[in-house]
Amino acid sequence: MAINAINGANTSFVTIPKTENSNSITAKFSDFLNNAIDEVNSIQVESEKIANDFAIGKTDNIHEVMIAGEKANIALQFTMQIRNKVMEGYTEIMRMAL
To answer: How far is it, in rounded angstroms, from Cα 15 to Cα 24?
Structure first.
């Protein structure tokens, strides 16, 4: 039984260049976190706008309002859990003996 190779398949999912220093990796991670927080903020703002539109009578779609509110709530809860895990990791690193 012959096993043929799959042509064109790339088996490396994540490639990290070896020339990067820790400052550039830290900058990329902080950019990632800032972008994620900005996205959560935009979800919150959109939810508030939809709720205000419903309150003043511009829309009568309560489902859309509830979905936007829950989406904003879940995004905020997820962000808070990530913050908690990062803080736990930081405190564990600080507790390590050198």
So the answer is: 15
Going from the C-alpha of 33 to that of each of 9, 21, 27, 51, 97, the distances in angstroms are: 31, 19, 10, 27, 28
88, two tokens:
């736990």
Q: Which residues of the chain, if any, have pLDDT below 50?
A: 9, 11-16
Amino acid at 82: I
Tokens of 18: 């070896």
CA trace torsion 36, 42, 48, 49 (10° rounding): -160
The pLDDT score that the predictor gives to residue 12 is 45
Determine contact, residues 44/70, Cβ cutoff 8 Å.
Answer: no
Q: How big is the CA angle at 40 (ends 81 and 94), to the nearest 5 degrees?
A: 35
